[in-house]
Write a structure and sequence with these properties.
Layout: E1 2-11, E2 14-24, E3 29-33, H1 40-48, E4 53-60, E5 69-70, H2 76-81, E6 84-87, H3 99-107, H4 111-121, H5 138-150, E7 156-160, H6 168-183, E8 187-191, H7 195-200, E9 203-208, E10 211-217
Parallel strand pairs: 3-8, 3-9, 6-7, 7-8
Antiparallel strand pairs: 1-2, 1-4, 4-5, 9-10
The structure holds adenosine-5'-triphosphate.
Adenosine-5'-triphosphate binds near residues 11, 39, 40 and 191.
Amino acid sequence: MLEIRQLQAFYGPAQALFGVDLQLQAGQLLVLQGLNGAGKSTLLKAVMGLEVSSHGQLLLGGPGPASAQDISGWPTHRRASAGLGYVAEDRRLFGELTVLENLQVAGGRGSASRLDWVLERFGLLKPMLKRPAALMSGGEQQMLALARTLMTRPRLLLLDEPCEGISPVLVQAMVQVLLDLRREGLGLLVAEQNRELAQAADQVLELVAGTVRGRRSGAAPT
Ligand code: ATP
């Protein structure tokens, strides 16, 4: 569903990615690992068309049998319409809006039925629909950020450290949600140091200083 060929990324004159290749199929989880500054966030931003300038091919397969398209020249909103959903490390929620409002503003057309779909998968959010997002714990906010992105019906999720800085119980819940989404056929490209997620991944890529240093594949889906 996504093939990245020779991706290079730049912040002004500073190069952050040096020719990254990867392939991700629908219903697969790929975990990106690497130390701080290795380029994990940059890779996700380059795929989404945010903040960095990049070179290389980004081939996105359609939902049907249509052949893949190179989205590398597309603006971010067009990539989102084509099925990419991105959750940034800092979550970017509307703190003064309630949980429900945060979900509704993302929803657009057909959002009532989608809201049911999302809340079925995020039972934890149901009792707090009227709470302002700013009054949730970090982990609950992370769940809401993911739930909000799912309101846009993405086929491929790009997640930046979804388990970082959240309580162990919520890490478990987050891992479970991600594995459920994989089972439902979404592609997941996740920058994450959490071991449990890496153990369940179909592929793990290790980035070192903007290049792929290690690749491992083959964990059985759970
Ligand atoms: P972290 O876990 O700390 O987020 P990361 O693996 O996601 O690390 P990136 O944030 O992608 O790493 O950073 C890759 C490189 O790009 C680093 O050298 C970083 O200093 C640089 N960089 C990141 N954001 C910017 C920016 N906005 N302007 C200039 N350089 C940046």
